Amino acid sequence: MIDENEFFRGTTLRICGNLAVEDAMRACTRYIGELMPVDRMFLQVFEPDLGAMRTLAIATAATGETVDLLTSLRCRSGHTRPHFLRCQTATI
């Protein structure tokens, strides 16, 4: 088992070690993958005015890429909900 401080420093060095975010995330995914199962890493920003999440980068241990994907968080009713709550509509 890895020391908590060593893990924090190892991930921080990889994330902050490259100005190209996709390369930094790829290096971090590789590092974390040596310690625990990991498939991919996402960098996302919440866009409250749009009620959506914007994905800026995606990385696996083999590749990293910048993207610009917008994922709506709005339900059919038009309300924005946290991802762990389902939208429910009542029919009368």
The tally of domains stands at 1
Please give the count of helices: 2
Give the rounded overall mean pLDDT: 87
Structural class designation:
alpha+beta
Order of helices and strands: HHEEE
* Estimated helix fraction: 25-40%
How many strands appear in the DSSP assignment? 3
List the uncertain runs.
none
Strand order of the largest sheet: 1-2-3
Rg from alpha-carbon coordinates = 17 Å
Terminus-to-terminus distance: 56 Å
Morphology call: elongated
Strand content: 25-35%
Largest sheet: 3 strands, antiparallel
Q: What topology emerges from the helices and strands here?
A:
Elements: H1 4-16, H2 21-33, E1 41-47, E2 52-59, E3 64-72
Antiparallel strand pairs: 1-2, 2-3
Helix pairs in contact: 1-2
Q: In words, what does this structure look like?
A:
By secondary structure, the protein is an alpha+beta fold. The protein has one domain (4-72). Helices cover 28% and strands 26% of the residues. It contains 2 helices and 3 strands. The chain has helices at 4-16, 21-33, and strands at residues 41-47, 52-59, 64-72. Strands 1-2-3 form a 3-stranded antiparallel β-sheet. Strand 2 and strand 3 form a beta hairpin. It starts with a helix and ends in a 20-residue tail after the last strand. The mean pLDDT is 87.
Short description:
The chain has helices at 4-16, 21-33; strands at residues 41-47, 52-59, 64-72. With 92 residues, the chain is α+β, with helices and mostly antiparallel strands. The N and C termini lie far apart (56 Å).
